[in-house]
Design a protein that fits this description.
The complex is a heterodimer of chains A (about 325) and B (about 250).
Chain A: E1 2-7, E2 9-10, E3 13-14, H1 16-31, E4 36-41, E5 58-62, H2 72-86, E6 88-94, H3 97-110, E7 113-118, E8 129-134, E9 139-145, E10 150-154, E11 169-172, E12 182-189, E13 201-205, H4 216-225, E14 228-231, H5 233-237, E15 258-262, H6 268-274, E16 279-284, E17 297-300, H7 303-318
Parallel strand pairs in A: 1-4, 1-6, 4-5, 5-11, 6-10, 7-10, 13-14, 13-15, 15-16, 16-17
Antiparallel strand pairs in A: 2-3, 8-9
Helix pairs in contact in A: 2-3, 4-7
Chain B: E1 2-6, E2 9-11, E3 19-20, E4 25-26, E5 33-35, H1 37-53, E6 58-65, H2 70-79, E7 83-88, H3 94-108, E8 112-116, H4 127-135, E9 139-149, E10 152-159, E11 162-169, E12 172-176, H5 188-194, E13 199-202, E14 211-217, E15 226-228, H6 234-242
The chains are: A alpha/beta (about 325), B alpha/beta (about 250).
Chain lengths: ~325, ~250
């Protein structure tokens, strides 16, 4: 018996969301009086034993040419084998694009109930109940998993990492890795930027910025804060900004520590995608903008005058200027 | 080519979210129901575009839901579906729903099975992957572009930290998101024609449910906004640093 966590990586480097799930798995293991183990597929840079600092006791590693490209079907097969080998009772994923593709397949393979979008540790006081985000962040559901093996996909930025001292034991794992039926013809990694789903701080712009030529207001502030940039749906629909920056009910749902909305009125569909943010700042010249009702801090004023002064003040605070 | 589109009934994006029966059920009073936007705007409309390019294509719609799903099924037929199947069951368990769809999909020999990337009510994003695993088919999630080249699908998809272009032999399962197509509005001819298009109702097969919803709750209300004067925006930076401790 154990808790097994899938450690996702990009280009050999372990991602922040993976440390969150590692820590989540370790805390879940404590509740169940067992240990947490990790499975890592493909080559990784750096030492995996440092996963011990997040409470992981063993790391199962497997390298195979068929794992170099991501195919949920192949990955699910290998993770199912690792689950059986480690006798895992709970399997944890990040609810990112990778986890969303693998976890449902694994659920079918292992006949294991899946809760995706989890936001808290399981409650084992009465069966096994996991709290998850529903209605695009507007509510929570408490979902009971009734199968012997349970799968949880944890929302990014929903769980605070608990650090501890420890070194994980690395155990090479081998199993048959099938060929992928997907031929990858091109990959285009967005490098250098902070991935929006994982960002601690997000600066977002709306139609109030009047045109793409004014986006330096958003990007300058984001750069000063080390933040990711985002936008409202109308802005991506009229192609001022790329689709992948659209946050809201039909775009990406995010939960950063700080969300700064500039020139966004705050339609209910937009709020649905950002209302899990810890602190929300709204800058809008319209005092009636509905976004102010959902905000922690607000400035009723002209973004073109206010935002550059905020950017300067942040640079001064951080000693960048 | 045969395409199956999985459509789900969800509350309108502006619906007020509340709960009834001791917080165990979604409160449906006054709620407008729509086709889940990802299913409609991206999955269904892209299928319609493929049919416009190759009129021999047939588009079947499938919904797991009660009789109150029929208005949204008729709307999908009005947009351009050829026929529809409703599996008469209301379940919030992804495995149950995916199993029902997979059974129909298996008999129908579809070249493509489309879902939206998630529904906007339960946000499970699980149905497509589960159908693919049950049927032993490849699954491309988060597709943003799809073209057909004889027996292959050429797909651009979102992956963690970027995009990827894939070539896969049909059949396969695809979950669709923004970029695949643009929202359409049904025309009068489509609405009139939809009334007589076949809508078959079948009973679900007995399948285990892996999960069940115990209760719902709402996030705590915000304390209220603290306004900073536009004359002194530097004060906002001080508050974010010293009070919110977020920078």
């Amino acid at each position: 018996m154990s808790v097994l966590v899938f450690i996702d990586q990009a280009e050999g480097i372990i991602k922040k969301s993976s440390f969150e799930v590692a820590s989540y798995a370790a805390q879940t293991a404590k509740i169940l009086n067992t240990t947490a183990e990790a499975i890592v597929l493909g080559k990784v840079q750096g030492t995996l034993s440092s996963l011990g600092n997040f409470g992981i006791s063993k790391v199962h590693t497997i390298e195979d040419a068929n794992l170099n490209h991501f195919d949920a079907q192949v990955y699910a097969k290998v993770i199912a084998d690792a689950t059986e080998k480690s006798g895992a009772q709970v399997v944890v994923f990040s609810n990112n694009t990778t986890g969303k593709a693998i976890a449902p397949r694994l659920s079918v393979r292992l006949k294991a109930g899946l809760v995706s979008g989890a936001v808290a540790l399981p409650d084992t006081s009465n069966n096994f109940v996991v709290k998850k985000s529903v209605f695009s962040g507007k509510a929570f559901a408490h979902v009971s998993i009734k199968t012997a093996i349970k799968i949880i996909a944890l929302n990014p930025n929903a769980f605070n990492i608990v650090k501890e001292d420890g070194a994980a034991e690395i155990i090479p794992f081998s199993t048959t890795v099938p060929n992928s039926r997907i031929e990858v013809t091109a990959t285009n990694k967005i490098t250098g930027d902070v991935p929006l789903g994982e960002a601690d701080i997000v600066v977002s712009g709306g139609r109030g910025l009047k045109g793409p030529e004014n986006w330096n207001l958003v990007t300058d502030l984001a750069q000063a804060l080390g933040a990711a940039t985002a936008c409202s749906r109308p802005v991506s629909d009229i192609h001022w900004r790329p689709h992948h920056e659209h946050v809201g009910q039909t775009g990406l749902a995010i939960a950063p520590n700080l969300y700064i909305a500039i020139g966004i009125s705050g339609a209910i569909q937009h709020l649905a995608g950002v209302n899990r943010s810890k602190t929300i700042v709204v800058i809008n010249k319209d005092p009636e903008a509905p976004f102010f009702k959902a905000a922690d801090y607000g400035i009723v004023g002209d973004a073109f005058e206010v935002v550059p002064r905020i950017t300067d003040a942040i640079k001064k605070l951080k000693g960048i200027s | 080519m045969k395409i199956l589109i999985c459509i789900s009934k969800t509350p309108d994006t502006t619906a007020k979210i509340g709960f009834a029966d001791n917080n165990t059920k979604f409160a449906t009073d006054g709620v407008q129901w729509i086709i889940n936007p990802y299913d409609e705007w991206y999955a269904l409309v892209r299928a319609i575009e493929l049919k416009e390019a190759d009129p021999s294509t047939t588009i079947h719609l499938i919904n797991v839901g009660g009789a109150d799903s029929e208005p949204i099924i008729r709307k999908a037929l009005a947009l351009g579906g050829d026929e529809a199947i409703r599996i008469n069951s209301e379940s919030s368990d992804s495995f149950f729903v995916a199993s029902q769809i997979a059974q129909v999909a298996k008999e129908g020999n579809y070249d493509l099975i489309f879902t939206g990337k998630e529904t906007i009510d339960y946000n499970g994003s699980s149905i497509g992957g589960m159908i693919a695993e049950i049927l032993d088919l490849p699954f491309i999630s988060h597709a943003i572009k799809l073209d057909i080249d004889s027996s292959n699908a050429l797909i651009a998809r979102e992956i963690e930290g970027g995009e990827e272009t894939d070539k896969i032999n049909l059949p396969l399962v695809v979950s669709c998101q923004k970029g695949m197509a643009e929202q359409r509005i049904p025309n009068m001819k489509g609405i009139m024609g939809a009334r007589t298009k076949p809508l078959k109702v079948i009973e679900p097969s007995s399948t285990e449910e892996y999960t069940s919803i115990v209760s719902f709750d709402l996030p705590p209300a915000k304390a209220g906004v603290k306004l900073v004067s536009p004359e002194n925006p530097e004060e906002l930076v001080r508050l974010l640093n010293e009070e919110a401790k977020s920078i």
